[in-house]
Amino acid sequence: MSGKPSRTIRVDTLARVEGEGALHITLAGDRVTDVKLKIYEPPRFFEAFLRGRHFSEAPDITARICGICPIAYQMSAVHAMERALGIQIDPAVRLLRRLFYCGEWIESHTLHVFMLHAPDFLGYQDVIAMAGDHRAVVERALRLKKIGNRIVSLLGGREIHPISAAVGGFYKTPTKYQLRELVNDLEWALQVSLETVRWTAGLEFPDFEQDYEFVALRHPDEYPFNEGRLVSNRGLDIDAAEYEDHFVELHVKHSNSLHSVVRGRGSYLVGPLARFNLNFPQLPEVAQEAALQAGLRPPVKNPFRSIVVRAVELVFACVEALRVIREYEPPAVPRVEAPNRAGVGQAVTEAPRGLLYHRYALDVKGLIVAAKIVPPTSQNQKRIEDDLRDYAARLAAWPLEEATWKCEQAVRNYDPCISCATHFLKLVVEREETDGA
Amino acid sequence: MSSERKPKPKIAVFKFASCDGCQLSLLDAEDELLGVAGAVDIAYFPEATRAMRKGPYDIGLVEGSVTTHHDAQRIQQVRRQCKALITIGACATAGGIQALRNWKDVDEFVRVVYATPQFISTLKLSTPIAEHVPVDFELRGCPINKHQLIELISATLVGRKPNVPTYCVCLECKRKSNVCVAVARGVACLGPATQAGCGALCPSYDRGCYGCYGPMESPNTASLTGQFRILGQSDDQVARAFRGFNAWAWQFRKASEECERK
After folding, report:
1. Please, what are the domains in chain A?
2. ipTM of this complex > 0.90?
3. How far is CA B76 from CA A47, A278, B88, B105, in A?
4. pLDDT tens track for B32-88
5. Cβ of A163 and B67 within 8 Å?
6. Cβ contacts (< 8 Å) between A41 and chain B: which residues?
7. Which terminus of chain B has fewer CB atoms gathered within 10 Å of its CB, N or C?
């Protein structure tokens, strides 16, 4: 070893992320020798105990993987089951599912942009401290978040673990009148989202770009939620059923979550940056304009700018929700009957944090015999470590405390959801002043 | 009346095995959040803040169940730091959905999910917090009701009994004038045995209750099992109904095990 001083950036409890993670980064001089994003969130074994449960229970059970994005789990579960059972949903149900997802994106992105990520850019420990100086911004954010939650509650009964999503449709669908009651709020939300794009664009961003493989769903006409091909900027173009031919999960010792890689290539990025870069033409015009005015032009390769991209997706979610409400006619029946039969089904949908893959195999009684779930954070986990390997080296000369905070911020760029990733994530940045080894 | 300012009560939020949804309920209380933050000192809440101040705390909110050796030790430390310890949600009060392992071979579970089982450290059982330390109040729900949480925090701070009902979901249905899904449509509904708190959500959305708030005070599960059988449910189906998010709560556990023995 060289005689250079080594130090360790270490965060034992990663804050403002969902779930329990830690980060360890070891540096020898300005060279990063080790990066470990550790997930110590205890494993909960969903894939194991789903076996023997009926397919109709999967949306309720898998929602409990994550209290932040339960709808994503419900959507991937119902679509995978519908493929396994070979049933077609009503176009009105398809619209309602898009609205449901709009609600979750608005709620989750607002939470992350204002309450989890913005405090890093402005130098606050948390949103409560931020509210001391930016009361109006925080109050507006809370109202915006509440509007997202209101959509979810209307369709699903409550914000967290909603109860109405079903294989084949919903247990109960809303009336046109009920949806129209959301319009005033959503028009306000759209204006605030546009303001949020401008506000986030004015934050300070480190000069940091990476050469990513972006992976997202792509639909020819729509910004993606539940349908489309799985594509990347390096030529991937597959159906959800081919997912496991192209992605593989590795189990590493320092994490209770599994690392996902593209077969033969390595880490990749899912989430807002990937969706934006691969689906810019499908964004509504007002969102495209807001992005361009904020200086975002695909491909955006600076992960710190994901906060602005989330704001652009807020604009999209408001526009899309308003469109759905205009076009909605209630379906003839809330859900199509789904008789028991054996089969295998896969689905990928776009959780706020990125791709969420589900696969189920069913027996003739409709009971689950095998389940596989790959959450967005386990797909991003290796990519987060790759970012830190480069980024921490640039911070080698910084005081330890500031460098640690910047590394935490770099992790939060991904809005990691550790509860999901376990089967998935933990982060520790180690950094101690020691003599050279 | 005293005019001197008392220090604000310190609140801490701790997480064990869970989905984060119950602690998120605090951040989802959009109308009350800034008010709560003004009335108390949020001293430890990693999901929301980098600032992590040491105990002791006046109130500790604990989310999640105990599933590892490390967590079994950690809950002892948490208890020592908290004047009042309140458990929030089905994981903390009943072991949660992850307690489904309690009837199975957890080593086999590890092998199903992880390629390298020797990296994983886990206990055979997922257990509620009250099996490990004394608990001052258990707030039920999967997830909890955020209004009940605010009520509970307020009540604890002034030293009164929280207004959290222990009757069953049926009363909430009656109050909402819901048509009974079990009687009118023959839907299997856990409402008669389940504690209120959700506002009878599932019956309001035309489906049967699936037991998020766990068993009510002295539920008649034997009678409900009989009713499910009359509706044409198999023993397996009845066992699965009781074996959900509060499966390890003893009344539901007993009911599901009786179905299995048949």
Report:
1. 6-41+394-421 (no CATH), 58-238+270-338 (1.10.645.10)
2. yes
3. 30, 49, 17, 27
4. 988 888 899 999 999 899 888 999 999 999 999 999 999 999 999 999 999 999 999
5. no
6. 17
7. N
